[in-house]
Amino acid sequence: MVGVVRGLRTVHQPTPRPRAYGDGSTDNTDPRTFVTILMFDRNFVFQDVAYQQLTSSGVMNATYTAKQPGYAYIYVSNEEGTLRDVYIDDVTITQTQSPVVQSEDFYPFGLSFNSYSRENSLVNKYQYNGKELQNDLSLGVYDYGARMYDPTIARWTTIDPIASKYASYSPYNYVLNNPVKLTDSDGRIVRDRDGNVVFSAVETVKVTHPSGSSAVMVRGYIYANDGTKIEAYQKVSGGKGWDTDCHGQTFADGQYWINNDQVRKILKGDKYAKVEQGKEKNGDAVIYTDTNGEVEDSKTVSKTNTDEGTCVYGQGGLQEENTEEQMEKAWCRPDGNTNKEIYRKTQSDVKVSCEQADKMTKQTVQDFLKAAEAAGVKITYK
What we know:
The chain is mainly beta. Helix content is 8%, strand content 36%.
């Protein structure tokens, strides 16, 4: 806001004391005439002040940039200690609008603060996470499509339509109570900020491999693109070979351990289409089965049309690193009757993994194990 005031000197000229004036000089002919801007917030609490003294040019300007919504009180004054008439004319007040039309700050769960909107402007209702604010009757809820979300209590207003997929959480919870790391685009499946489907923990178990090696793992679920529940395991403690298996590497970026009986669910839920052998491409999934079609192993195509034919990579059993082999030799049953099937995704990829070491999940598991040990409970999985 800018106030511009012109003043005319008068005939009364008492002998003044030398002092600095509005232009920084000691020109004592300049009267002590000011334009002043007082700034108040929306509650009329004083915030700041700006002023300017009349200079020898006969013009005085005061400018202030508002830091928050509120009110400005602007006035001109003659503060001469002795009689001196000053005539004020041509007072101009100019308000320069901010280029910002609307601004919102949010707490992690979506409650807004420091809200600002330019006066006489249309309000943008698409705010927290880009969802439309429904404020009729002062409800203050966001429309996510499947249901409404209330940021005041950080809960949905209705039960999760797929609550069975998150059985260990309240059906009213929002993003598993972790809005900094997770998001929910439609009120259904929870994903992390990279769009990856989140692992939903169920219980902590001890598992043993036929080789005799064992590990403590969290059993839970990840989800295919169509929402199909896929049982998976996340390592808590154990050797590096327990980080993932062949299917976890092929379908979950090496983040989980996935058993054979879950592979067909993944192929269907993630819309894989069968590919004729000889037409495979890099990234295709190769499924190795027994003569009855039961899945035994899986790999990912890494090279085609080489001197050695098609190559695949992956790992199996308790292997700690991926290896690359010829597709024909990557998996063989002792009886030599192994079959293979090749599949390719037919829709945009939605990763089924999230971060390998979710700190919250790990801490929960560790607390559970400590409590079980202190109670003398032996954790086993059958």
